[in-house]
Amino acid sequence: IKNFLFVGAFRDDEVNDEHPLACQLKFIGESVPITRIKTTNISKTSLNDFVSDVLHMPPSSTTSLAELVYRKTGGNGLIATQFIQTLWYEGSLYFLLDSNKWTWDIKAVEAKSIPEDAVELLVEKILQLPSAARYILQYLSCIGSSCHESTLGLITGQVLVSGPFPALDLIIEEGLLIKEGIEYKFAHDQIQLAAYSLIPVNKRDCVHLQIGSMILKHASKERMDSVIFIAVDQLNRGTKFITDEDQKVQLANLNLRAGEKAMSLGTFSSAVAYLKSGIDLLERDSWAKIYDLSLQLHSSYA
Question: PANTHER family per the record (predicted)?
Fold first, then answer.
């Protein structure tokens, strides 16, 4: 491919020399040039520039605060940002109307403990949000790093373009989600991880099932084709909670539909997974009761 530039990012502590990505990069590097740029945490000076810019104050005035933030966060951009916001939430960082500038309680900032993990800090922030906002973040975290506006509407049962949605607006205002056109994206993958961690492990599959059920309930026949993968992925996570035979047949049909669509797109590994899930949902006497569906699933899977 001519005139093509691909930009990617990964955490080097999660990709060793035997990792598939590392092997693929080595293979690609034998035929095309690869430029590697190693990013590090923010320097103390850069962090002070950031604090200065956020508070609209000269760098010389924010040095004491920036040094404390740097000492506690090690220059991690995500943690530093969330820590500064936490200081504001708790009143250690506040705005003086009479002098029209920001100030801070240096002793309170020094005393403020900070979790070692960014996820823990983000969990604390999410827990401070209203229940409606937490609900949205948790449900979105089950879907992935991003979500189409209309899909979010199916999950919440609200048409987002019809009017204000205070809980969603608050999440965006807090910097946890980013709206790009008609897409909502987590501002950072650690935010998605934090939101998902708030769902008890023993309830996660049930929540996935609820999400899939809501998509089925609210999606029109025309809309269903565009959300088939999301709906089926969610429903398949909760199959152990499905005991009604008719519901199993319905989901087996949806897996067949998703499998056929995946094959038409050339994603054969996904197609195989959907078809296998559909077959697993069939009862032993399915050939007698639902011959056509059983034949289609097994024929496509073969």
Answer: HYBRID SIGNAL TRANSDUCTION HISTIDINE KINASE G
Distance, in Å, from the CA atom of 169 to the CA atom of 148, rounded to the nearest integer, reads 16
H or E segment and range at residue 146: strand 146-148
CB neighbour class for 66 (10 Å; exposed up to 12, middle 13-18, buried from 19): buried
pLDDT confidence of residue 98: 92
Query: Where do the CATH 1.10.10 domains begin and end in the chain?
Result: 126-197
- The torsion of the CA quartet 194, 195, 198, 199, rounded to 10 degrees, works out to -130
Q: Is 147 helix (H, G, I), strand (E, B) or coil?
A: strand
How far CA 255 is from CA of 141, 237, 248, in Å, comes to 22, 12, 10
Q: Does domain 126-197 have CATH number 1.10.1060?
A: no
Average pLDDT score over residue span 271-289: 91
pTM score, two decimals?
0.80
User: Could you give the 3-state DSSP secondary structure of residue 230?
Assistant: helix
Residue 60 confidence (pLDDT) above 70: yes
Which tokens go with 177? Answer: 């989600």
Crossing angle between the packed helical segments 149-156 and 204-218, to the nearest 10 degrees: 100
